[in-house]
Design a protein that fits this description.
single chain, alpha+beta, four-stranded antiparallel sheet, 15% helix, 19% strand
């Protein structure tokens, strides 16, 4: 479940279906909820895992939920 406490006008809400945002989860074994944006960049076109902190980019309106393409805020 995506954290909706962030800005309701987040850029991803215009690109991704709200139902999709509600069901997306981190592909890591914990399958934790994803949050809009990333640490330090809340309006970034990305999703961040609430547990492991992996950041998944959204390219052309498609979340890239591949573990080998995920990054961390330190990267």
């Amino acid at each position: 479940m995506v954290n909706r406490e962030q800005s309701p006008a987040h850029p991803l809400t215009a690109v991704l279906d709200p139902v999709l945002l509600e069901v997306l989860a981190c592909p890591a074994p914990d399958h934790a909820p994803l949050q809009l944006g990333e640490p330090g960049h809340p309006d970034a076109l990305s999703l961040t895992c609430s547990e492991c902190g992996r950041i998944y980019d959204v390219r052309d309106g498609i979340p890239v939920l591949l573990l080998d393409e995920a990054r961390y805020a330190d990267d």
